[in-house]
């Protein structure tokens, strides 16, 4: 009888141990899930009770989150960043220190997933167009996987019938400005201090930068294999596609001349 019990114990021990391993792994997995879904809000942050906060959101010291704000899962707000108005951030967005997103205005600001808003950038605030009428709805829509660097400013539209739109996978470097009603496509690069006035339309894979060499004036470079155009309004110059191509060729000629002069000195 004793030998039968010992044999039974030997047979059952591998099964029991494997079951314990499975249970322990599932328990550790559930603990990890709960840790990932935990919302961390610093005591000094001001979060309105009506704000919608997703799982795994981290809100740093001295942040402000308004009553109509929606933060997707995994968003991270570094110290002194603020989200106001009817503003929605998708999953895994990051607001660096001092960033301000949204405004207490009619309309909304929508930002997709995996976007980075740099230090002291201002996104989704009232436009600087004198035609804007107080109380009008204004809108800003930003896609996914964009990196908006420090001190950038991106404004909402100037009227209810239009939107400021930025697509996906754009790199907007420091101190750039994108004004009201601009339309930006996908995979564009805007170098530091690039300024887009209102109603500018940029398609895909566009590069715009300020080029300079010591002793030479700065020139604007338009990237190859791209198109840039402006919407025609009564208050804006009527730039045609041919004039843009001419500006591109002249810019390239100036760059080549600058290189030649610089190398000869």
From TrEMBL:
Keywords: Membrane, Transmembrane, Transmembrane helix. One of its GO terms (cellular component) is cytoplasm. GO terms for molecular function: acyl-[acyl-carrier-protein]-UDP-N-acetylglucosamine O-acyltransferase activity. It comes from the Eukaryota. One of its GO terms (biological process) is lipid biosynthetic process. Coiled coil: none annotated. The chain crosses the membrane at residues 239-257. Gene3D superfamilies: Hexapeptide repeat proteins. InterPro entries: Hexapep (IPR001451), Lipid_A_LpxA (IPR010137), Trimer_LpxA-like_sf (IPR011004). The keyword Transmembrane applies. The keyword Transmembrane applies. This is Trimeric LpxA-like superfamily.
């Amino acid at each position: 009888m004793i030998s039968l019990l010992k044999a039974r114990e030997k047979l059952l021990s591998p099964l029991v141990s494997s079951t314990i391993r499975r249970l322990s792994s599932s328990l550790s997995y559930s603990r990890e899930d709960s840790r990932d879904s935990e919302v961390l809000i610093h005591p000094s942050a001001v979060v309105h009770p009506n704000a919608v906060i997703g799982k795994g959101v981290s809100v740093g010291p001295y942040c402000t989150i308004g009553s109509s704000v929606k933060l997707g899962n995994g968003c991270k707000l570094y110290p002194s960043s603020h989200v106001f108005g009817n503003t929605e951030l998708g999953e895994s967005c990051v607001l660096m220190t001092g960033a301000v997103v949204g405004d207490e205005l009619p309309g909304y600001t929508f930002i997709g997933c995996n976007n980075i808003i740099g230090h002291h950038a201002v996104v989704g605030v009232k436009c600087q167009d004198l035609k804007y009428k107080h109380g009008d709805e204004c809108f800003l829509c930003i896609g996914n996987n964009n990196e908006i660097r420090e001190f950038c400013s991106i404004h909402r539209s100037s009227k209810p019938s239009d939107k400021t739109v930025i697509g996906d996978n754009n790199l907007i470097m420091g101190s750039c400005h994108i004004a009201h009603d601009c339309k930006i496509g996908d995979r564009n690069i805007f170098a530091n201090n690039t300024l887009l006035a209102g109603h500018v339309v940029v398609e895909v894979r566009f590069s715009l930068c300020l080029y300079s060499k010591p002793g030479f004036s700065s020139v604007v470079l338009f990237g190859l294999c791209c198109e840039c155009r402006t919407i025609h309004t009564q208050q804006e110059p009527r730039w045609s596609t041919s004039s843009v191509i001419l500006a591109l060729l002249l810019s390239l000629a100036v760059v080549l001349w600058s290189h030649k002069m610089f190398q000869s000195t």
